[in-house]
Structure formats: structure tokens, C-alpha cells
Amino acid sequence: MSHFSTLPAATEYAPFYHTYVRLIPGDPLAALRAQPQELRCLLAGLTEKQALLRYAPGKWSIKESLVHMLDTERIFAYRALRIARADTTPLPSFDQDDYVPASGADARPLADILREYDTVRAASLSLLESFTAEMVARQGTASGQPVSVRAMAYILAGHEAHHLHILQERYLPQLAG
């Protein structure tokens, strides 16, 4: 049984993150293991041109959404690492709206982004699986709010679940038409 199998208490994360935590009713590591297959199924057969689709003006392309997921996963894993190692330094926030345009995602081949996705996910799982129960229970501060390592795992998995849902509900229907 995973050290992460107990849902975090509401005091273990900022209220904003409840949107993500609620999407993961079970072990977040199991969700993180399953999500790559779900992503591959959603994107099966997607062309480079289709991967540039924006479901509405001003919204990110599919490629930009994927790179946003990668950037966010790296940041959340880093936060979990720092807190798990008993680092009490408050961790800064990041502005996704600054990161996405600076990522150059649309100029990259989709296959390259998906290879990076596999690498980042493997690293995140390896890190999270290495944590002891004591590390998982540790709390720190990120973006000016309290957060536990346990909550970070749920937030990480829930963030991706959120974006997979957006891909399925907002992007893919436009490609089918």
C-alpha cells in the first residue's frame, strides 16, 4: 500500500487546489501510472497541424497544454522534494501564463513533447515512490500557502486529470467535426 493512499486533509493544501484533489479519489500514484496511457489514447493519430488547435481564441494549443502539464509536473515534484527533505524555505509561485508563451511548444514536434512527457512522468513516479511515510506527512509552504507532500502528489495527479478532461471535452470534439 502506498504512503499516499490517504486523502490529504483540507488543511494540507490551499483551497484553490481542491479542484485537483477531488479528481483523485484513490491512490495518486496509481493515477499517475495510468495517465500516460489515457493521454496516448486521447492523442492517438493526432497530426502536427491538429496539435496546434486552440479550442477558442486566446486559449493554448494542444502542444502548449502538454508542455504546461510538463512544466507544472516538474514544479510540483520539486516542491514535493524540497518539503520531503524537511526544507522549510517558503517556495515561490509561478505564473503559467508567462511560462507557456516562453516554452516554444508549438515549434516542437509532438513526438518530442511526448518523449519528454514519458521522461518527466518516470522521474516524478520514481521520486514519489522513494518517500517514506514520514516524508509524505511533512508540510511546507508553496505560493504562500501550507502544503504537504501527500497533497502535492494528489495535486500533481489531479492537475493532469483536469487537463486530460479539457482535452477530451474542448479540443477533441473540434477535431472530430
From TrEMBL:
InterPro entries: DinB-like, DinB/YfiT-like. Residues 31-166 form the DinB-like domain. It comes from the Bacteria. Pfam families: DinB_2. This is DinB family protein. It comes from Hymenobacter yonginensis. The lineage of its organism: Bacteria, Pseudomonadati, Bacteroidota, Cytophagia, Cytophagales.
